[in-house]
Amino acid sequence: MSFFNHRNNLIHAVIAAALSAINIYIVLSLEPPNLAQGIFGNIFYIHVPVAWTAFLLYLCVMISGILFLTKKDKVWDHRSLAFAEVGTIFMFLVLTTGPIWAKPAWGIFWPWEPRLTTSLILFLIFLGYFMLREFGGNPEQVSRYAAVVGILAFLDVPLIFLSVKFWLPEMQSHPQVGQYFDSANPLPTYLLIFSFLSLLVVSSLMIRLRTNILSMKEAN
Amino acid sequence: MLIHFILKDLKIEWRSKEIITSMFLFGLSITLIFALAFQVAPMLIRTFAPGLLWVVILFTSVLGLNRLFSLEREEHAMWSWISAPVDRGTVYISKVISALFFVLMSEILFIVPFFIFLNLPANFSFFQFALILFLGTGAIVSVGCLISGITLQAGLRDVLIPILLFPSASPVAIAATKCTESLFDQKPMTEWNFWFLILGSFFVIFGLFGYMVFNRIVEE
Amino acid sequence: MNLQVTNLSKSFYHSPVFQSFSLKMESGEKIGLSGPNGSGKTTLLKMISGIMSIDSGKIRIGENDVNPDEPDPRKNLYYLGHSVGLYPGLTGYENLTFISGLYGKTSRNISNILIKVRLDSADDKLVKFYSQGMLQRLKLASAIVLDPDILLLDEPLTGLDVDGIKLFESVIVEWNELRKTMIIVSHDSDWLRTNTDRIIELK
After folding, report:
1. Is the N or the C terminus of chain C less surrounded, counting Cβ atoms within 10 Å?
2. Quick check: B155 and A135 CB within 8 A?
3. Distance (Å, whole) CA A13 – CA A19
4. What is C3-201's CATH superfamily?
5. DSSP code of residue A36
6. DSSP readout, B87-149?
7. B150 chain-A contacts, CB cut-off 8 A
8. How many domains does chain B have?
9. Closest residue of chain C to B72, computed from CA coordinates
10. What's the rounded Cα separation, in Å, for the pair A117 and A160?
11. Alpha-carbon distance C11 to C18, whole Å?
């Protein structure tokens, strides 16, 4: 692939692979806080940073959508689509790691917990976004429509979160989160940050690759 | 100019009575299905009734929005105002007002059968109920008109409207159900004014957003 | 009123229809637009009228640039297109009242104009029951009601009978005397040669 023929892109890919390998090794080898949950307890170190990354990418969809509508530069549309695709992959991971963690932690696969529910709703909006991209008609028109839907989706996030949060007050955010944090031990915090940064490196590689593919397709 | 557009929609509907009739009959049919499917102990239905009511309103709104915007699609009638010296955001606001009127009219018609078929008591403030219906419906149509405008010239638009609308309007579904539930339980308004605020915020945020972007989505 | 198009570009499904297209029209000039199907004649008129967005370039009417956020420049322009562009659920009279309201021309005597285009007997008939010829006359009536400085006419003779064509040609003569700027699309090159100042062939 011509993208990886460029030295910087290759270095980016190697760093992303290395950080991911270290991340997975840490998650698999670290002792979980609650032995009853087994190895699934450490999914927390994947689930939470993946969720942060997914929301950050969806925020980028909104920002690039605004820039596309104002500047009318096709590059922003390509970036918007790349952010949406990668963000949706990450959001899918949130929705799969969530139940995997929830079952041993809470005894049920799907707790209607605010952040998980907000993630599900946002994921569904973006599935609609991709249907619009596919079946919306003339690609030039569809780019504008998609930009508006991308902005609409993220504008909705605070309202979705607030309404779900107070909808089932008994189902508050991650009650077992506290077990991971101890003021005397900063390791969980560092691990979360490391995991998040490594996911940013991975997602930025995916976005650059995808934007490159879209720009080349447009040029052809 | 706003009145001009609203009167045009009202005049067409007055002649055909297509939108309100189809929404009313559709709402009645769904109510019948719910009554048959949930024919259990009356107290249980009373618990579900607020949620069922807003499901009916959401489904009938989709039908109404589809028909309202189809008026613009037929014979490319919308070209008359797209090429005119008219602020297209004003057209969006006029559609929100027209849609709100039509959906409220159909709600007035199927609310009575809804209460009768589900054997619900009506011992609450009708004024507060009207307020909830007004704000909840307004919130649905504010985002609904934006989505209908986006899908106006899209393929698969009949499918795309509910796919995009239902997850986007989930805060409305939650907040409106909570308001209605509290009203049916005869709780004072001070206990549920948070949900009212959610509905109002949704209406304002998406109303403003729709006004700002409508001119970019109606062009071919 | 002058009309100027500068470096206009537009693509459909990633295929360019216009690339850096430019056009300059003086006030009162009449241009014929011809070309094979798919050459972009209707697209050009739609872009000038604001129905269709442009990818890049500029369209200027008089002293003002046309863009979707500024509706004012469009008040001196009218697009008479292929498609009906009218509400089937309204009568001819109601459609004209609606359109004239959009342009702020509410003082126009719509009844007289309907008589002029010989639609007075059908003014309370819903547009969905109009024949093709009647629709074309009603669209012509819209153009007369609005009395714009710039007219974009897309195959205006389609569906008109012999009387309708004569009516339309008489209206064009009146517009010519009023020095209106016109772009007329037609597949009839002979007609364009007789009724316009110059012809632009799109490929």
Report:
1. C
2. yes
3. 10
4. P-loop containing nucleotide triphosphate hydrolases (3.40.50.300)
5. G
6. -HHHHHHHHHHHHHHHHHHHHHHHHHHHHHHTT----S-HHHHHHHHHHHHHHHHHHHHHHHH
7. 132, 145, 148-149
8. 1
9. C87
10. 9
11. 7
The length of chain C, given as a count of residues = 203
Residue numbers of B between 78 and 97 with CB closer than 8 Å to C: 79-88
C186, C34 contact by CB (below 8 A): yes
Q: Do the beta carbons of residue C107 and residue C128 sit within 8 Å?
A: no
Q: Count how many pairs of residues, chain B against chain C, have C-beta atoms within 8 Å.
A: 91
Tell if the CB–CB gap between B83 and C77 is shorter than 8 Å.
yes
| Percentage helix, strand, coil for chain C under 3-state DSSP, each rounded to 5 | 35, 30, 35
pLDDT in tens, chain A (220 residues): 588 888 889 999 999 999 999 988 888 887 666 655 666 677 888 888 999 999 999 999 999 999 999 998 889 999 999 999 999 999 999 999 988 888 877 788 888 888 889 999 999 999 999 999 998 888 888 999 999 999 999 999 999 888 888 887 665 555 555 555 656 677 778 888 899 999 999 999 999 999 999 988 888 7
> Residue B129's CB: how many other CB atoms inside 10 A?
16
Residue the block writes with tokens 């993630």: A119
Listing DSSP states for C43-84 in one string gives: HHHHHHHTSS--SEEEEEETTEE-BTTB-GGGGGEEEE-SS-
CB C72 within 8 Å of CB B85: yes
Cross-strand pairs, C181? C150
pTM given for the model: 0.91
Diameter of chain A by CA atoms? 58
Cβ-proximal residues to B150 (8 Å cutoff; 6+ apart), any chain: A132, A145, A148, A149, B164, B217
Rounded distance, CA A157 to CA B205, Å? 12
How distant is the alpha carbon of residue A87 from its chain centre? Answer: 5
Q: How does DSSP classify residue C108?
A: S
Domain that holds residue B57: 2-217
Q: Give the chain C residue whose CA is nearest to the CA of A139.
A: C13
